[in-house]
Amino acid sequence: MNPNDLNERKLQILQAIIADFITTGEPVGSRSLSKSHDMGISPATIRNEMSDLEDMGYLTHPHTSAGRVPSDKAYRLYVDELMDTSELPEEDKQKIRSKLLESRNELDSTIEHAAELLSDMTNLTSFVLMPRKDESKLKYINFLPVDSNTVVLMIVAEDGQVMNRAIRLSVPYTEENLQLMSKVMTHNYRGKSISAVMAMDIIDSFTNDMQSLSGLAQDVVPSFLKTLEKMLNADLVMNGYSNIFSLPEFSTDMQKTQNFLKMLEDKSKLTDVIVNRDKGVMITIGDENSEDMKDLSLITADYRVNGELVGRLGVIGPTRMKYGKVTSVIKYISDNISQTFELKENNDVKDDSNDDGSADEQDS
Amino acid sequence: MNPNDLNERKLQILQAIIADFITTGEPVGSRSLSKSHDMGISPATIRNEMSDLEDMGYLTHPHTSAGRVPSDKAYRLYVDELMDTSELPEEDKQKIRSKLLESRNELDSTIEHAAELLSDMTNLTSFVLMPRKDESKLKYINFLPVDSNTVVLMIVAEDGQVMNRAIRLSVPYTEENLQLMSKVMTHNYRGKSISAVMAMDIIDSFTNDMQSLSGLAQDVVPSFLKTLEKMLNADLVMNGYSNIFSLPEFSTDMQKTQNFLKMLEDKSKLTDVIVNRDKGVMITIGDENSEDMKDLSLITADYRVNGELVGRLGVIGPTRMKYGKVTSVIKYISDNISQTFELKENNDVKDDSNDDGSADEQDS
DNA sequence: GTTAGCACTCAGGTGTTGAGAGTGCTAACA
DNA sequence: TGTTAGCACTCTCAACACCTGAGTGCTAAC
């Protein structure tokens, strides 16, 4: 069953079938194949080879008198060995670069643009996992008064992540209490990782150490924990889910479309799947995925910020997708993000107070 | 054309037709109507009345030999005059109350739960507009160092809204510069409304007043403006878009489904529509909406926090929806949110002399 | 004014048929 | 022995006719 069982001609035929099926979505017959790809052999010969390929599990048959359709195994072989992984045309590269440059100063916008680019250029549903790091450490915790019974909890992590949440209090508070609370919590948790703090017995430490705050703590601590949890949970941005309608096999099969869209609606499940994938470019095809994605393919890649792996982006679509093109686009986009947010070594935080004369630069 | 043209019997027949059509989705015929609603007249009489109602624009005819279907005008009459607006059953009320209580200390979670409840209980697509206020005033602006070329901009408004964004700098910065920048911007914009600040000529004031910061300002100001814009833009949360598949008229008509989902995908347009609706409970039916929603109905209501109008929630679905039930659910949920976040008068802030000291909170 | 009766209409389901695209097998060929 | 032409067979799909059921509009009688 390993690819070496396949002679040169079988490979050539398989490749041609996959290429045809990817573009048309129709089962490929021996006669039409021999017409479209001139490989100097008759349809009868192709039929014999096809029959062998079917026995080996690379092709299937919707019904006796239909053409052949590639199996998941065939796509796997195609992706591993046969696929055309040529460079992206300069035009596409240009489009990606200019769109990402638009917002090169802001990671968040860049990420959103990346998702748009990805779905536009592949005509599939794209997703981007926003940068979240489990090990990121807390920097400070702050409470801001809003009105007489509402405060905003703000948590800032060392890596710049900021999360906030409005909390309604059932007991009165004073500004002094809030500031004390901020100080105590910052002091207790600063420099600790989010998961470490979540594992601590917070309520207990409060009621013991700070009697005066224990009333406040009752209201605040559950929200604090929920907010930490939210900081851990990766945030999934999706784009172009209605692209699915442009594919004939979906726009004629309501059930399939419905399953697809329902699957996308369960974001937390999808996030789980994406988070748990391998690093680098990863392609999973059909039944290599879990049950509810067993006739879909998933391609993901990572992007880095300052050399550190922070997020993941990719597409999801039918197994019949243009693997070569899609992979190139994903790779190019992720590399481009990583490059844009590359650490510039000569650009360090200076601790001295004098300004550096840059003021003159835009005086006109 | 006013409803007074309709005698009692016509109203009764119209109401019966609408009720039947809303539950079945099938055109209603005279014979089946006389069977299901015993109103003591024969199908022939009903036919005559139906014919009159059709002439008056309340009913239409998909084709000669089909039953009658209510027009948008009929739904309007139904909603205004005929609809059963009975109280929600205690069971449903209980369900809403307990779900909303789960997160009564946090507005954000409550809002999300409300959207879930709404789509679950109506089997439609629900949306909630997160609280955003155009007139909210800035409280302070803060920059946090992340790494040698990244800082986080954090904007806090008086109403507790916090927005942040990572900014990549092209010039080096010092901690002192950041703190100076925070102080200057906070001093300049504090107490001003977001829209007022956006209207100011920010770059100019920087280059004039603060030569030393102008290099930083080049990078920071565009992001600052974008972030303010984001604070103004209401954030739309949606839920249950795949509920549409449970309706026969959508699950058999791919084109309709596709239009619906594509319409939902353009969030900014939908947000615009929702923002610009009347206060209170508002129902718009079919062609009362804009072109791309002309065979849908939209029901919205507002919710308040501390007596102040802050957000809006609602559902979108086919004109054939259970207006009575849906309206009751929306009303009950919005009232419940408003009640939960009611101002408690006896619960005041004791001291609000100094609330921008938070900029130095970070190095405690 | 109401109703029964009747002719008429139309969508949708069923059955048939033929075309087209495909396969598998066999026998002949190089 | 691998390759190919030929042929019988299979299956989908679109077109077509046909029938049925639900509905309408009209008319005449109650």
Can you summarize this structure?
Chain A contains 14 helices and 10 strands. With 364 residues, chain A is α+β, with helices and mostly antiparallel strands.
Which key terms come to mind for this protein?
disordered C terminus, DNA-binding, elongated, Enolase-like, domain 1, Arc Repressor Mutant, subunit A, homodimer, 46% helix, alpha+beta, 364 residues, 3 domains, Beta-Lactamase, 14 helices, five-stranded antiparallel beta sheet
Q: Could you walk me through the main structural features you see in this protein, from its secondary elements to its overall organization?
A:
Two copies of one chain form a homodimer. With 364 residues, chain A is α+β, with helices and mostly antiparallel strands. Chain A has three domains: 75 residues, Winged helix-like DNA-binding domain superfamily/Winged helix DNA-binding domain (Arc Repressor Mutant, subunit A), CATH 1.10.10.10; 159 residues, Beta-Lactamase, CATH 3.30.450.40; 94 residues, Heat-inducible transcription repressor hrca homolog, domain 3 (Enolase-like, domain 1), CATH 3.30.390. Helix content of chain A is 46%, strand content 17%. In chain A, helix 2 crosses helix 3. Chain A is elongated. Chains A and B meet through helix 6, strand 4, strand 5, strand 6 and helix 7 of A and helix 6, strand 4, strand 5, strand 6 and helix 7 of B. Chain B binds a DNA duplex (30 and 30 nucleotides) through helix 2 and helix 3.
Summarize the helices and strands and which ones pair or pack:
The structure is a homodimer of 364-residue chains.
Chain A: H1 8-24, H2 30-36, H3 43-55, E1 59-60, E2 69-70, H4 72-82, H5 90-101, H6 107-122, E3 125-129, E4 138-147, E5 150-157, E6 162-168, H7 175-189, H8 194-199, H9 202-209, H10 214-232, E7 236-239, H11 248-251, H12 254-265, H13 267-275, E8 282-285, E9 296-305, E10 308-318, H14 323-340
Antiparallel strand pairs in A: 1-2, 3-7, 3-10, 4-5, 5-6, 8-9, 9-10
Helix pairs in contact in A: 1-3, 1-4, 2-3, 5-6, 5-14, 6-14, 9-10
Chain B binds a DNA duplex (30 and 30 nucleotides) through helix 2 and helix 3.
